[in-house]
Amino acid sequence: MDVDIGENELGPYDQAFISDELIEEYAPQVHTAEPSRSAEVLADREINDIQERLGKVRRPSWHRGPPKNLGEAEHGKLKAEQWKTSIEFDLPVALMHLWGAGCEADSAEHRSQRQKLVHSTMLLATAIRWGTSHVTSPHHTQQYTMYMKAYLECIQEIFPHHSWCPNHHAALHIPEFLLRYGPMHSWWMFPFERIIGALQKTNTNYKIGECIVQNRERK
Amino acid sequence: MVSNDLQIWDMKDGMAIGEILGSDGKPFIDGLKRINLRLAWSLSVDWFNPYGNKTSGKKKSIGSIAMGLPNPPPSLQYKAENIYLVGIIPGPREPALDEINHFPHPVVDFFLSSWKDGTWFTKTVKHATGRLSRSVIAVTVNDLPTARKLAGRAGPTANQMCGLCWLMKSDIIDFDCERWTRRTLEEHKAAAEEWKNAETKASHNKIFKQHGVRWSELLRLPYWDPTRFIVIDGMHNLFLGLVQHHFRDLIVIDKQANKELRKGNHRPVNLKELEKGIQTLTSNPTVSTMTHLRVAVLEALVQEYGVELSSRTHPRKKDMIEALLVS
To answer: Exposed site from A79, A147, B37, B203, fewest CB < 10 Å?
Structure first.
């Protein structure tokens, strides 16, 4: 197989996200060999490398990145905002350092597997970048659809037995809403989740779902 | 590239707001041509655990109904002080199926009369002689399960998995979105009416099974279209959905999960082990006797018998045992 993103399909904006060099670097080397399960598994060493890269990132004070010990059980669930920063910057950069140019791997199969993974990560990141822009247009939605489809097809190829979620399907419905309602910032749930955060912090008497009238009757 | 005319910077520039008609049959929002106030709201229903998000501890679910107002400029739209908390849906669990309809009911009552007749304010800061205000619900923002519940649709795990098109769960692998058949408002409304008019529980179930539609309170709003007004929320769909799935289930960035995968792969299965596995499987075993087998042996058995695994990229022991016992 060949990766679907040829250079001719890339607009000027894309180069900010995937440079020509990187594409030349790994696209031709991707081939059909189905990876064995052992090649899929990340070694602790690789996760440690990712953590080290994350630790070196300096970010603005208002910016909340992924936990520095990403991959350990201790950090618990990540917030939506942390996944957002992860895909926008941290993980594509860390993975590219780790598995991009000059990647050291045990075997050719192993190396190709890693490069496919990093490629799919870049496709997802690019799709999301087009989808969550502060301005949108028919061009934005076309780009989003193109990259999202390429991402899904890439995953389909790496993991032929992958079980798809309704989310994967729904993601391809997003463009119509971008045209109907404009940039995603005015219709995503971040502001509403903040209200929920405030409600969660409210002190309660731990009698959820029991109403006051009921209590009076008991007396 | 694209000419500037086509760029959309705000919800008010999108096609949706202009399509909503007022009770007079003319566009509801038409710039600043009229004296009365026209407001387009966004509605969001979501569930949360009042005891916090700890995995251990009590699990209760209560709901919040909140609204935002996209009329002001984008920088003001979603400031916390501009969000209107309409109500709380009491716990301790999520209302099931069509039970949820009781909660939007008063909201719909208000918005119906506000769209039809408007609300008269006898005096406002800028209008000393009073001003009429009209409101519509222009968009509802929810995660996938709640969106379906509000629309009166089958949940995202049902066979009719999508509320927007007719693609079935079995065809989930079809990414050719230009060729999907859209659902229409007419179909949805007809089915919902039929459900509402049915009298027995059995006929409710029958209609639901056929169309995947129940009655939804929001359908009382004449302009509201469940196939167009319910957006796919980017926060849940992209960040908590696709991105999380990508890193946790595909790349598998968690050490613990990797360790489990590695354990299953390390020691290759020898013939003796496989024979013993087949023997166990053919002796009408229980789940617990099957659990004694190694993951690698189970994998070999799955391959040997050509059993279809229904779920996940990295199947767990439990999944494989279930699949083997069913076959």
So the answer is: B203
